[in-house]
Amino acid sequence: MGLLRIHFTADDVARTTVAAGADPLWEVVLSRFRLQDRDKAPAFRPWERALRESPARLSGMASGLRWLTALAPEAPYFPDFLTPAAARDGLEAGLDALRATPSPRFRHELALLARHTPIPAWLGALADRPSAPVAELATALAGYHAAAIAPYQDLIQPAVEADRAWRAGHLLNSGVEGLLSSMKPMLRWRWPVLEVDYSVDRELHLRGRGLTLVPSFFCRRVPVSLADPDLPPVLIYPIDAAFRWQPGERTPGSVVALMGATRAAVLQAADGGATTTELARRAGVSLAAASRHAKVLREAGLIRSVRRGPAVLNLLTPLGSGLLGSLPPASK
Questions:
Q1: One domain for residues 39 and 142
Q2: Which of 126, 186, 285, 289 is the most core-located residue (most Cβ within 10 A)?
Q3: Which of 115, 136, 153 is the last residue of a domain?
Q4: Is residue 248 part of a domain?
């Protein structure tokens, strides 16, 4: 295990932010690693099982998987051109940026990849004649995303949003230091350096550019960043395990106790995050009642409660988001 040391200035602290959501191209690359994991984490098993049970989706992702296997092998490096910054604005924006990558950059990053792992001869076309091969790569990645990522947004998106709401609470309550402290033990903040558990040893100087923290469903164990220190600094981090629905975590019988209009209203009130006082106000119940209902929801695995300063913030889990979406309008 290595260590990434990110060096901040005062300007960098002021410019550190949490991305609005997961980056689609980072999720494409990282999900490819989850498919090859030898120890399958419970959080990814429903996704992988659904993929393997769908021949049409496996066929749709096959071309993308071929490219990703060659460009993102089990090695301490994969090319930065796979994850352009423009993808923060969506998959198509990211693919447009990929298509616009200049030939010298393809050649340079493929040469870096070749230092770590043998690369197939057919990848040479990407360096020598980029227009047609890069169009093929972009189409393959789009097909992979359509088959392996897009159909499972009801599993992925609520988990990422819940984690981001939790981090945002720390940022609003305690500033950037509180945000970074919420990510222990994988991140350790000791001004002016953020130490990050990483696959290799690295030093990254932000130089006033700030840092964008990007939540990821498919990132696992340790965060990941771009290899080129001159690119806009990002740190892709795995969302907290508590926001992933893992089978067997619910208290038996608690979901049955959940049924009823008042408790459903409290569940609805937790959408987007709410303190217990806010739950009471939104659901139109007393503070004591809101606290009781929140306890049942928490035991059922439908919300997670975390401390934010003197208050407790209640956040929907992916399971809670799924149940909320199935409630009839009158119950919301």
A1: yes
A2: 126
A3: 153
A4: no
* Pair 109, 155: CB distance under 8 Å: no
Count how many Cα atoms sit within 13 Å of the Cα of residue 188 in the half-sphere of its side chain: 7
Q: Do the bridges between strand 212-216 and strand 187-190 make them parallel or antiparallel, or are there none, so unpaired? A: unpaired
Tens of pLDDT along 182-197?
888 899 999 999 999 9
Both 259 and 275 in a single domain? yes
Indicate whether 125 belongs to any domain.
yes
Last residue in a domain, options 102, 137, 153: 153
**The one-letter amino acid at 69:** T
Q: φ and ψ at 102, to 5 degrees?
A: -70, 150
Claim to verify: residue 41 and residue 109 sit in the same structural domain: yes
What is the model's pTM? 0.79
> Do you know the residue count of the chain?
332
Where residue 306 falls (left for φ over 0; alpha for ψ -120 to 50; beta otherwise) is beta
- Dmax (CA) of the chain: 69
Write the pLDDT tens digit of every residue in 244-258. Answer: 755 444 444 444 455
**Is residue 198 within 8 Å of 223, Cβ to Cβ?**
yes
